[in-house]
Prior knowledge:
- The chain has helices at residues 6-20, 27-35, 42-61, 66-84, 100-116, 125-143, 150-168, 170-191, 199-214, 218-223.
- The chain is an all-alpha fold.
- The chain is globular and about 60 Å long.
- It starts with 5 loop residues before the first helix and ends with a helix.
- The relative contact order is 0.13.
- The mean pLDDT is 90.
Amino acid sequence: xxxxxxxxxxxxxxxxxxxxxxxxxxxxxxxxxxxxxxxxxxxxxxxxxxxxxxxxxxxxxxxxxxxxxxxxxxxxxxxxxxxxxxxxxxxxxxxxxxxxxxxxxxxxxxxxxxxxxxxxxxxxxxxxxxxxxxxxxxxxxxxxxxxxxxxxxxxxxxxxxxxxxxxxxxxxxxxxxxxxxxxxxxxxxxxxxxxxxxxxxxxxxxxxxxxxxxxxxxxxxxxx
Length: 224
């Protein structure tokens, strides 16, 4: 399933959580396995996963599908409980965190939003790896760009780290988080036109522009 909407990303996370859960593994342990992180990192990552619930709520609220909204209202509490585990402690056994029917329904919502509210595309892993390498080179160029004021260098590095984090956490962020960085940097360059002359700025804008195109459907890119 594509990761182009919050329901799809939530479905992918809960599918992995369901597979990792058992009567002998705690909820924290199941999340650590599902997310591929240490147990100490679970609270922060689950908080990010919980934001998918809010994103999904807003997306469904503005959709035209009344039947889809009714389905969402029926099943959303089950998805929310699977993520937040408010009725069970995090040390409790992790079996049966979500039932198969609720997970299947979330998949239906994800398919609906992939048509109605897609945020873009997720390119193949090899292309994402190449984008990571390009971002590392762009960051090195910015660090060495003594023709840029320190504050500007810091802002560029901050945004490039944002994009790198988004690439590493696509199951939480989706295409929009990647595409937001070029838009923010374009605004920064527009406010400070003199920095366009810096070779480092050209390298950065070429890199983030390539990332924006990689996550944008061809038709949308042509219209932009």
